[in-house]
Amino acid sequence: MKVAAIYARVSSDQQKEEKTIASQTAALVEFARSEGYSVPDEWVFQDEGYSGASLVRPGLERVRDLAAGGEIQAVLALAPDRLSRKYAYQVLLIEELARHHVAVIFIKAPHSGTPEDQLLLQFQGMIADDAERGIMQSRTAKVAAQLASLQHSAVHYPGSNNEAISASGALNRPRRKPSGNTLSIASSFSDGSTRR
After folding, report:
1. Rounded distance, CA 155 to CA 139, Å?
2. pTM of the entire predicted model
3. What's the pLDDT tens digit per position in 16-52?
4. Measured CA distances, 6 to 31, 124, 154, 177 (Å)
5. Which letter does DSSP use for residue 162 in this model?
6. What's the pLDDT tens digit per position in 71-96?
7. Which of the residues are catalytic?
8. Distance (Å, rounded) from C-alpha 39 to C-alpha 36?
């Protein structure tokens, strides 16, 4: 019988509360049973609250250790984005495990090795990666908008010669252009020199 490890991951508190990691694990245990894999209870790994954008996760580290030690023939995961949100990391992990003769099987992805199925798997990985970038860009844009709002907020008082008080409390005065009739004032000093 083939020996496998199960890997499940959720990143947010909402997903943890909704017990999606339990449903992932249950689906993977059922899949392992139907496909003839033996999965010891201690080789069911769950990383709760860990981002798929990082490779530093306790469950994933244990899976990699088992593979390096030659103790498993397969890693079962729900989908590529559970392994990693970054496509490059997915490829890196799959290649690392393959060097140890460990197959990575996603139950929500094609299982045959045809070029078409491999292409579909790559698209799934890139979509997950793009979704992660979209989340990060959205967060960054939101913070930038809040900062811009604070920087541009100023209080204008009518009749105050367009002076404004910025959000930081600094007084902003408009710059005045020098007129064309600027006079040069010279001052004489006791030593007879003139300075301008």
Report:
1. 28
2. 0.58
3. 566 689 999 999 999 999 999 999 999 999 999 898 8
4. 10, 20, 56, 72
5. T
6. 999 999 999 889 998 888 998 999 99
7. 11
8. 10
